[in-house]
Amino acid sequence: MYDIKALYEAESVEQAIRLLTEHPQAQIIAGGSDVLVQMREGKRAGKELVSIYGIDAMRGVSYEEDGAIRIGSLTSFSHITKDPIIQEHINVLGEAVDMVGGPQIRNIGTIGGNTCNGVTSADSASTLHAWDAIVEITGPEGVRRIPIHEFYIKAGTVDLRPGELQTAIIIPKAAYEGYFGHYIKYAMRNAMDIATTGCSVNVKLSPDKRIMEDVRIAYGVAGPVPLRAFKAEQAAKGKPAEAEYVKAFAQTVLEDIRPRDSWRASKAFRQHIAVVLAERALRKSIELAGGEIHE
Amino acid sequence: MYVGKNVTRVDARDKVLGRTKYTDDLCDKSAYIVRVLHSTIAHGRVISMDTSQAEEIPGVVGVFTCFDVRDTQYFPTAGHPWSTDPDHQDVADRRVLTEEVRFYGDDIAAVVAEDEVSAAQALRAIQVEYEEYPFVLDVQEAMKDGAPQLHKEYPNNILKHTTIRKGNYEKAIQEPGLTKVEGWYETPVVQHCHIENFICYAQMEGDRITVVSSTQIPHIVRRVVGQALGIGWGKVRVIKPYIGGGFGNKQDVLYEPLCAWLCRKLGGHLVKLDVPREETFVSNRVRHGIRSHIISWVRPDGTYAARKLEAFSDQGAYASHGHSIVAKGAGAFPQLYPCENVEVDAYTIFTNKSVAGAMRGYGIPQAMWAVECHTEDVAAKMGINPVKFRRQNVMPVGYMDPFSKNELYHDTFNQCLDKALEATDFERKYQEYQNQAGDIRKGIGLSLFWYNTAVWPISLETSSCRMVLNQDGSLQVQLGETEIGQGADTAYTQMTADVLGVPLEAVHVVSCQDTDVTPFGTGAYASRQTYTAGFAIRQTALLLRERILAYAHELTRMPPYNLDIVDGNIIRTTDGRVLMTLEELSTEALYSLTNSQHLSAESTSQIKSNAYSFGCTIAEVEVDIPMCKVRLLDIVNVHDAGTLINPALAEAQVHGGMSMGIGFGLSERLLFDQKTGRALNDNLLDYKLSTFMDHPRLRALFVENPEPTSAFGTKGLGEPPACSVAPAIRNAVYHATGVAVNDAPVNPHNLFRRFTEEGMFAGTGKGGFHHV
Question: What CA–CA distance (Å, rounded) separates A121 from B153?
Answer without folding.
Answer: 48
